[in-house]
Amino acid sequence: MSALATGNVIAPPPDAGAVGEEIHCLAGMLYPICRSITGQGVRDTLDILATCIPLERHSVATGERLFDWSVPKEWTIRDAFIKDCEGRRVVDFAASNLHVLNYSIPVHRRMPLAELKAHIFTLPDQPDLVPYRTSYYAERWGFCMAESRLRRLPEGVYEVCIDAELKDGRLDYGEYLHPGVTGREFLLSAHICHPSLANDNCSGLALLAMIARNLRGRRTRYGYRFLFAPGTIGALAWLSRNENHVPQIDHGLVVSCVGDGGGPTYKRSRRGNAYIDRVMAHLLAHHGAQAIIKDFSPYGYDERQFCSPGFDMPVGLFQHSAFATFPEYHTSADDMTFIHPQHLARAYRTIMDAIEIVEGDWTPLNLLPRGEPQLGRRGLYAALGGDTAGSSAAMAMLWVLNLADGGHSLLDMAERSGLHFKEISAAADLLRKHDLLAPASGSDIPLDQTSSA
Ligand code: ZN
């Protein structure tokens, strides 16, 4: 038996291509909107997401206290430009919303180029790209442009205008709960505050919206709570309103940058050994050499808030290329040509596989534990004709029977055997149907197997 192959090719679902196209299309609808941590752009984005799922909308007033923070003023931007002495727009917000320093205070002045340069951000190492810059918590104004364009600007006096407003208003976020039968929850969160950047994070918003939509109508153990909130301050707003709810969340993923061809990358929760950390490590181990697992660090996206010591939630970060590791990151090159349907579909499958594990894990007990049960007599060895898939299925049965002492879950068995969870789960289901296994006390078989129980 030791020579049996343990290869595990998991075929993608037949609709994998279609879902990638759908996510890409939705990301493309979100991409043009000028978002910030507050303002109309966030509301317009929530409106689009609400066409996929019945989103619950929440808002928090400017000035409201959120732990050590308070909700900032609402930002409105109507137009922004730099005009040369002949009145031509040399930098134009209408061409790209990255051109304005996000959250800029208003300005309308004439000034010489030398003075204007103090307010211009470029990327000297990537001279043709426009950087994405913000100034959320310091009142400043500024423009972002390509270094190559700046170098071509002649000396002279320029008219600068940022037609923006910062006033008391509100912070908005959206939430959707797919209810489960146990009352326990899985949190999936994506930041909604970046303007026209496709991978970071139109990709994550669109991916989660499609997962939420496709879970509808499915009976699940866990409730799936989807959160679309501005980075940092939005997560703090949700946490401050849901402190009592936090203990119900057993698993969580923050999702960003899931449309590029890199990774996948998983950053562990602060706990480091949470169930979700094991699930993601298992899936990435079967993904191939490109997969990267990182330990927790207190820098990144909203896992910083969810994993702050006062909450210490079991929430990791899932990405393809890790933030700040790809040259397109936070530049105008992170556009819709940078993300692709097949990579979005790959991210969709990874998260759906994680959901399949939390939905499908259980702890079996071998009902004939003295010696091996005779599988041939039950027709369970029929597939063992030397083909790899059959051998792998037989190995999965032997592992499950051996480890089914009531102290090992299917995920434990998948980790120890090196087989994919799907193979272990299929073997356990088959053995249970042949009355060789039953759930150990305190464990339940998955909901989608209960009809055949
Ligand atoms: Zn970012």
What does this structure look like?
The structure is a single chain. This protein has 12 helices and 18 strands. The strands form 5 sheets. Strands 1-10-12-11-13-16-14-15 form an 8-stranded mixed beta sheet, with helices on both faces. Strands 5-4-9-6 form a 4-stranded antiparallel beta sheet. Strands 2-3 form a two-stranded antiparallel ribbon. The protein has 453 residues and is α/β, with parallel strands linked by helices. β14, α7 and β15 (292-294) form a beta-alpha-beta unit. α11 (410-417) packs across α12 (421-433). The chain folds into 3 domains: 5-71 and 171-359, Aminopeptidase (3-Layer(aba) Sandwich), CATH 3.40.630.10; 74-167, Domain of unknown function DUF2172 (Glucose Oxidase, domain 1); 361-452, Arc Repressor Mutant, subunit A (Orthogonal Bundle). It is elongated and about 90 Å long. The structure holds zinc ion. Zinc ion is lined by residues 194, 200, 330.
Summarize the structure.
The chain is of the alpha/beta class and 453 residues long. It has twelve helices and 18 strands.
Instruction: Please give the CATH class of the largest domain.
Output: Alpha Beta
The SS-based structural class is alpha/beta
**Shape descriptor:** elongated
CATH architecture of the largest domain: 3-Layer(aba) Sandwich
Strand content: 15-25%
Approximate helicity band: 25-40%
Total count of helical runs of at least 4 residues:
12
Q: Please, what is the average pLDDT? A: 94
CATH topology of the largest domain: Aminopeptidase
Question: Assembly state here?
Answer: single chain
Radius of gyration, in angstroms, nearest whole number: 26 Å
CATH superfamily of the largest domain: Zn peptidases
> Gap between N and C termini, in Å?
30 Å
Secondary-structure element string: HHEEEEEEHEEHEEEHEHEEHEHEHEHHHE
